[in-house]
Amino acid sequence: MTVVVGYRAGEVGLSGLHLAVRAARTLGTSLVVATVVPKPWPTPSLARVDAEYEQWADNLGAESAGEAAGFLRDIAGGIDVGYLHRAHRSVSGGLIEVVDEVGGEVLVLGSLPSGGRGHVVIGTTANWLLHASRVPVAISPRGYRAHAGRLTRITCAFAATPDAVEVVRRCSDTAQRFGLPLRVVTFAVRGKTMYPPEVGLAVEDEILEAWASQARDIMATLRVDGVVGEDVALQVVTGHDWHDALDKVDWQDGEILALGTRPRDEIRRVFLGSRGAKIIRESPVPVLVLPG
To answer: Which member of 9, 150, 208, 252 lies 3.0 to 4.6 Å from 26 by CB, making a disulfide possible if both were Cys?
Structure first.
């Protein structure tokens, strides 16, 4: 088993490499830096054109490997790091091929350069992989740095509904595999104002608190039913919106936020709902999406 990280020179920042090092160090395994270059559609062409393209792809792969090696030299001490590149019709498809080939246990991606520092920004490649990868996909926030350390804790985002208990089980199994403590958090968000001004915001506060109280009762059953142990912290965090709620959580250095998905159909293997997408977008720490 190994950790696979997608990297292409000049395309994505260093945050993914930093997260991949932390994941590999925590799992006690190796790291593979994979560069996927676009593969042209088969069209009649001169052999010289094909040779030039192959040379360009080889140069891009070598440039990406050299650039990544330069950054990893100071933070990946003691980790066996390999480099490879593939030509594929899509970056996402190429990364999945690499994961299958090397026995990847986790696929790591960096956020796109756009967006504010400290936020997770996903593009079309990451979005496709979140719905198709057979292994967990970890995405780092923009500007994330590791400082040669390990991951320290997994926080599981729990929807506080009966059908979401399986997600907590998967988070618990993942925490054990990583050798990390587990925390379970439910986010209660007010959302858009539902009542006219003359009613007052107190009514909305009461509704939000009632929902939070119900969520606490549901979370308590996780211990009663043996889904989590007594050492697992259970928290309900309320906020005016998703950014406010995630900002109130006491995140620690090296923490990763895990979300579960559920099976959907054979074409799209998993389904990540709008709630999960909002949590990912506002997360100040790396996210780990577990396939259904």
So the answer is: 150
